[in-house]
Amino acid sequence: MLPKRELADFFRNKFPDSFLEVTDFRGMLTIHIRGRGVLEVLRTLKTDPRFAFNFLCDITAVDHLVQGGHARFSVVYHLLNQHGARRIVVHAWVDEENPKLDSVYSLWKTADWQEREVFDLYGLLFQGHPNLRRILNPDDFKFYPLRKDYPLQGRGERSDFPVVERSIGSKWPATQDFE
Amino acid sequence: MGVGPTGKGDWLTTRVDQLVNWARKNSLWPMPFGTACCGIELMSVLASRHDIARFGAEAIRFSPRQSDLLLVAGRISIKMMPVLTRIYEQMPEPKWIISMGACASSGGVFDTYSVIQGIDQFLPVDVYIPGCPPRPEAILDGLIKLQKVIERDSLRHYQSAETAT
Ligand code: SF4
């Protein structure tokens, strides 16, 4: 695995369109790229023998509405090299107007449900995904609840159900004392 | 209810209401709807140490069509609420609901978009059991409270409801 500076040089030369920067936080190297280059960057990280990150641990996303960044959203890929126990993080930045990036399902099958989760909660569209449906929220849910502009208590979904009345029986005065 | 010996054999007098209520309250068949940690506590009530069988409610049925007590134990999400309503509607009359724990009764600490803030907004709950989770003793107490509710029920309610339709 390359040290930070060489890693940055390598990706800047190889992907001049999509490379943004490499950051290092307590030894955790993070590559920041634009969303449109994500498939090629991850393919390099997986197949290049200098990296050989063969395992996709997790995909998640961050909404940078408040704290700011290269764009509004970043999709975060946590990769693991199982032979050397090395890890790396890739942030793929996409903006709000065009929240699209390529699916990495073709590289790791596990991306299937993880990308569906990111789609469900952030509304980011993974192109080339075989089955991009909601996975946690109900199918008819209308919003993307982990976006920062969605209120914590929702927009009334939790109180929007039909009320079932007691049909027959058990009609006692509500104030009755059963002690 | 009166019981006594005669010359030829035992006799018993009662009102039909009381006899039916006595039978119903001592043979509740619960349908456990355990969706979270409260469900674990419910299991220990069913097991030998606390032994809900002492109160006649040990016949757990996982089919709503065979049960008359819906025991909601745990948080109900917006995706689960239609399922819960469906299960309640499948249960035959007479039926009762116990809302067990803070989450089922009020949403508990989960004041978020996806958690129902109390199932009693949509379903007719008979007994609430407070606690997070309620202790087994509290669950047994809730069951006894429900038995008292059933005791005061009357067949006339059913009659009038049927003639009204
Ligand atoms: S009331 Fe407490 S124990 Fe019961 S489901 Fe909620 S969090 Fe879990």
Features:
A: 179 residues; alpha/beta; Beta Polymerase, domain 2; five-stranded mixed β-sheet; two-stranded parallel ribbon; 3 helices; 18% helix; 26% strand; B: 165 residues; Rossmann fold; binds iron/sulfur cluster
What does this protein look like?
- The complex is a heterodimer of chains A (179) and B (165).
- Chain A is an alpha/beta fold and 179 residues long.
- Chain A has a domain at 4-127: NADH:ubiquinone oxidoreductase Nqo5 subunit (Beta Polymerase, domain 2), CATH 3.30.460.80.
- Chain A is 18% helix and 26% strand.
- Chain A contains 3 helices and 7 strands, in the order αββαββββαβ.
- Chain A has a 5-stranded mixed β-sheet.
- The longest helix of chain A has 12 residues, at 111-122.
- The termini of chain A are far apart.
- The mean pLDDT of chain A is 89.
- With 165 residues, chain B is of the alpha/beta class.
- Chain B has a single domain (30-153), classed as Rossmann fold (3-Layer(aba) Sandwich).
- Helices cover 38% and strands 16% of the residues of chain B.
- Chain B has helices at residues 16-25, 37-46, 81-90, 101-106, 136-151, 155-164; strands at residues 2-5, 10-13, 30-34, 69-73, 96-100, 127-129.
- In chain B, the strands form 2 sheets. In chain B, strands 3-4-5-6 form a 4-stranded parallel β-sheet. Chain B has a two-stranded antiparallel sheet with strand order 1-2.
- In chain B, α1 (16-25) runs antiparallel to α5 (136-151) and α2 packs across α5 (136-151).
- Chain B is elongated and about 70 Å long.
- The model of chain B has no long low-confidence stretch (mean pLDDT 88).
- The A-B interface holds A 136-138, 141, 145, 150-155, 157-159, 161-172, 176, 178 and B 78-79, 81-82, 85, 88-89, 93-94, 96, 111-117, 121-124, 126, 145, 148-150, 152-153, 157-158, 161-162.
- Iron/sulfur cluster binds next to α2 and α4 of chain B.
